[in-house]
Specification:
The chain has 13 helices and 8 strands. By secondary structure, the protein is of the alpha/beta class. It has one domain: TIM Barrel (Alpha-Beta Barrel), CATH 3.20.20.140. The strands form 2 sheets. The chain has a 5-stranded parallel β-sheet. Strands 1-2-3 form a 3-stranded parallel β-sheet. Strand 2, helix 3 and strand 3 form a beta-alpha-beta unit. Helix 4 packs parallel to helix 6. The radius of gyration is 29 Å and the shape is globular.
Amino acid sequence: MTLPTSSLRRSRKTSVFLFAATFALAVLAATALVPSAQAQEMQWEDYAPRSTLVVEKHEVTRAKFPFVDAHAHQWGIAEMSGEEIAAMVADMDAMNMAVMVNLSGGTGEELQAKIAATDLHAPGRFVHYANIDFETLDDPDFGEKAAAQLEEDVRQGAKGLKIYKNLGMDIFYEDGSRLKTDDPKLDPIWQKAGELGIPVLIHTADPAPFWEPQDRFNERWFELKERPRRKRDPIPSWETLMAEHWNLIARHSNTIFLSAHLGWLGNDLGRLGGLLDKMPNMYTELGAVIAELGRQPRAAKAFLTKYQDRVLMGKDSWEPSEYYVYFRIFETADEYFPYYRKRHAFWSMYGMDLPDEVLRKIYYENALKIIPGIDPTLFPDS
């Protein structure tokens, strides 16, 4: 039977409509699947969820009390103009930093140039530590000569000695043997520091996970991905390096040592406390490890309260806005707020709400006690 022309037209229109509708639905479905597929393929380091948690928030951009940053680095400060140093001091003033301890002073003429620059443009606001030059390590009298140079550096204005992590890990004798942190050849240096009454801030090793397999169980996996050169060979082990560090401190009981970065034991405060109990000449500081305390606020508050006379404020890298996280962890009871560097902490922070007595000790009183030459009039009740 032949259909009427009008029926054929309706049939064609219906077919066209159905095809168009089906095609449109297919396009919409495919489009909808794209974000889902992308989400499944997203890299972990790109995952940055916005928290839906609604809690009280207290931003702290200025410390409650003036503080000493006992762990800072200003390698190029001798080359800065007066205006550049003044701008840095303005940033310090804004956050209530009274004194910055530049650990990267160098030795000899380099150190003298840095001291001269800050004495000229910002008197009283910077303290510089000397460093050891290990180039002549194989000299039989290296220890004695390095101690003599340290004495001269202190005479020129150095207020402490900073030891970098290459000691123990990356310095070798000509025969290829590793210079251990507690090598007796270096004893004259530590003895001289004690005689001069200056502290030794010593950085040994790195976080222990850098020695562990870089797998899904490694808490520092992301940091090692971003900074692959931080991965360490298994020998010498982390425990070996730190044992040398602790042995050195115990052997030189007349010298004040600051074990940098909480001695990499911010994740094991019980062990750190035991070491502080054992060695009264050992102090520590908080450079680059506040995230360890920010995830355990109750335990950290108890630790800092118990050892309030042995811990100093320190930051490590110079970025003014990052200090605010330190202040917020120290001074508030805020909950679940972000750290400023994901590779160091993918977890959230919690405030400790430390009492004023503890804050004063950490912020400035302990520094005044062990670092010579800091102007006490910059601080209240000093």
